[in-house]
UniProtKB/TrEMBL annotation:
CDD domains: ABC_BcrA_bacitracin_resist. The lineage of its organism: Bacteria, Bacillati, Bacillota, Bacilli, Bacillales. InterPro entries: AAA+_ATPase, ABC_Gallidermin_ATP-bd, ABC_transporter-like_ATP-bd, P-loop_NTPase. PROSITE patterns: ABC_TRANSPORTER_2. Residues 9-232 form the ABC transporter domain. Keywords: ATP-binding, Nucleotide-binding, Transport. The keyword Transport applies. SUPFAM superfamilies: P-loop containing nucleoside triphosphate hydrolases (SSF52540). Belongs to the ABC transporter superfamily. This is Lantibiotic ABC transporter ATP-binding protein. The keyword Nucleotide-binding applies.
Amino acid sequence: MTLVNGPLLEMQKVSKRFGKENVVKELSLQVPANCVYGLLGPNGAGKSTTLKMLTGIIAPTSGSIWFDGHRWSRQDLKQIGALIESPPIYGNLTAFENLKTRSLLLGLPDSRIHEVLDMVKLSTAGKKTARNFSMGMKQRLGIAIALLNRPRLLILDEPTNGLDPVGIHELRELIRSLPRQGVTVILSSHLLSEVEQTADRIGIINHGELLYEGEIQSGQNLEQLFMDVASTPDRRKEGYR
């Protein structure tokens, strides 16, 4: 199957080694523009390491990363937003004030702050400080921070961790709305039901290897596919490209 949209991001035989341990092994994947891409794998599969390479937190040992048709460079971080691990927020500040501290650095007007607060449904948070936010509100504020500079690519690492069912539903709706606004999303998760309801395309990795990549098909049993692939890391399965 050919990609409906051209790839915004490509990884070509990317590996990451820490000492003698190969955490990511010749990983090659394609993320089309304006889609939600779900990166699946068990805990310790290499998902977070992969995302950290895409955001420049760590450098690949070998291989190449391409963004919008050119070799990835740190300049591309201007077009990439990310929420990896805990949201980078100040607990003593309101949602607006947290965004204001970043908008001043980026030279953005207050109107952009109000736009992203509306996007993540925090415009009514008022004077409530972030330390008193629910986990879901904190996650949404972290995403608002990542969206502030109008990125073309948003990277989310296990964004539903710690959320209750209401928070998960709200976050799912937000993520699904982003491609319509020109934002491509990569999210990692081990919650198959959430990815099934959110993603357009998936990649399954285990032991640092990409074992499957393809579009989610109507009626596909994602849990069965995941178990077939992730439980047999020595057998690579071909997905659709």
